């Protein structure tokens, strides 16, 4: 095993003494990291991926990472994930770059300004390195950012970015080295039954002591086929990258809550995102970014959605960059991907039925918590404790609910 893998093995984690056979369905950041952690702890692990590793949301994500959560458990998971990213940085093509994360609202948006003030107070209660800053100080630290109409801003210092696809590929390689059998091009189905979980593929059936479904937007489908429904809705989000521009070297990561956009530096240019589709997108004069006033987001079929970005998104982004930097940036490329929503905005994470586990429903924040969630999941699958607040059995599985965007401030 490489140096990178041993460095991230958590101290005091559950390790197995008998032969335990486990399977993971889904080769995204969550699935490959969990499979890796299971193998490092002594389990015999098989990972099924219907396409190639990182074919799902993990290969399309922006890679913005932070621990600036108002909720204590999320903040702790975010911090642990950042530690693991830093320790793993330099493995294969994976690199993690430390970078401050700015949260701001612009003049005229008192509701969100108050939400930031309250959110920052709660983050600080949980010992997060986050502070409110006045616009002049913000402009002094980040001179390229337009701050003249900023009403309230905060800077989170424990933050950074990376390429999520590179992380997932590097971790999959580490998993293979740790002994995980990674079966790409293999769609897994779960069979309903009374005994332990059984996975069916085109090659036959296999029984396991424990199976994790980390199949991203397909997780509901995979579990429903086995008779264990979960309330999970996929929704489409979009991102773009600009061409390289030396000025953006000094940009922070930024979430503009008034505009609904986030951005981060990327290879000398910028990555800009969100673009959640709301019901109003097709109507003129609607701001489709602004889903924060109760606008319903659209549920997508995980097997039938448009992977290319919409024209309105690219045009709106160009306008937004003018707002954020006071100048334009040529767009290099744009794309779409699927995120997953749950009724209460918290993940579905834990044992859904005996031996059958789920890790899904990240509301657009799954990558940044993946290394921490994965080690918790590996622990739970090997007999450790789960996270009560995320227990998937808090729902029946047939709940009706509207999709609420994960970036929106409480
Ligand atoms: C444009 C965009 C930007 C984002 N930005 C960020 C960000 O900045 N920070 C952040 O934290 N999060 C971000 N996210 C969210 C993040 O991508 C996800 O929360 C995270 O990647 C989920 O990882 P996962 O492993 O759970 O799922 P996925 O990466 O979706 O992996 C699931 C895998 O399961 C496979 N699969 C499905 N069904 C089967 C089956 N039956 N058998 C075998 N394999 C199967 C799929 O092919 C897929 O590879 C973003 C998402 C998008 C789309």
From TrEMBL:
Entry's transmembrane regions: none
The keyword ATP-binding is annotated on this UniProt entry: no
Keywords: Oxidoreductase
Pfam families per the UniProt record, alphabetical: DAO (PF01266)
Top-rank taxon: Archaea
Gene Ontology molecular functions: oxidoreductase activity
Domain FAD dependent oxidoreductase positions: 22-379
Name of the featured protein: FAD-dependent oxidoreductase
Species annotation: Halomarina oriensis
Lineage of producing organism: Archaea, Methanobacteriati, Methanobacteriota, Stenosarchaea group, Halobacteria
């Amino acid at each position: 095993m490489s140096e990178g893998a041993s460095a991230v093995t958590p101290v005091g984690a559950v390790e197995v003494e008998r032969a335990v056979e486990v399977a993971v369905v889904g080769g995204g950041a969550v699935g490959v990291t969990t499979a890796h952690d299971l193998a490092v702890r002594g389990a015999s692990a098989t990972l099924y991926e219907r396409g190639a590793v990182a074919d799902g949301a993990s290969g399309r994500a922006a890679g913005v990472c932070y621990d600036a959560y108002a909720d204590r458990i999320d903040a702790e998971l975010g911090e642990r994930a950042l530690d693991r990213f830093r320790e793993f940085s330099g493995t294969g093509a994976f690199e993690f770059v430390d970078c401050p994360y700015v949260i701001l609202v612009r003049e005229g948006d008192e509701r969100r300004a108050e939400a930031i003030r309250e959110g920052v107070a709660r983050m600080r209660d949980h010992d997060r390195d986050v502070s409110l800053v006045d616009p002049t100080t913000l402009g002094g630290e980040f001179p390229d950012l337009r701050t003249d109409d900023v009403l309230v801003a905060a800077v989170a210092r424990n933050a950074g970015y990376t390429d999520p696809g590179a992380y997932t590929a590097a971790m999959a390689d580490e998993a293979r080295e740790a002994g995980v059998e990674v079966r790409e091009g293999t769609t897994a189905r779960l069979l309903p039954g009374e005994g332990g979980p059984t996975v069916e593929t085109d090659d036959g059936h296999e029984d396991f002591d424990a199976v994790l479904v980390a199949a991203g937007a397909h997780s509901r489908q995979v579990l429903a086929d086995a008779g264990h429904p979960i309330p999970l809705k996929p929704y489409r989000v979009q991102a773009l990258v600009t061409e390289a521009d030396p000025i953006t070297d000094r940009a922070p990561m930024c979430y503009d809550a008034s505009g609904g956009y986030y951005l981060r530096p990327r290879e000398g240019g910028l990555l800009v995102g969100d673009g959640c589709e709301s019901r109003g997108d097709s109507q003129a004069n609607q701001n489709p970014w602004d889903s924060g006033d109760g606008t319903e987001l659209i549920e997508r079929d995980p097997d039938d959605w448009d992977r290319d970005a919409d024209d309105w998104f690219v045009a709106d982004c160009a306008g937004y960059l003018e707002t954020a930097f006071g100048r334009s940036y040529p767009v290099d490329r744009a794309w779409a991907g699927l995120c997953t929503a749950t009724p209460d905005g918290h993940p579905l994470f834990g044992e859904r039925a005996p031996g059958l586990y789920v890790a899904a429903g990240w509301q657009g924040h799954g990558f940044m918590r993946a290394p921490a969630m994965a080690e918790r999941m590996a622990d739970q699958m090997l007999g450790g404790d789960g996270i009560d607040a995320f227990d998937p059995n808090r729902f029946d599985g047939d709940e009706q609910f509207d999709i609420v965007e994960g970036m929106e401030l409480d």
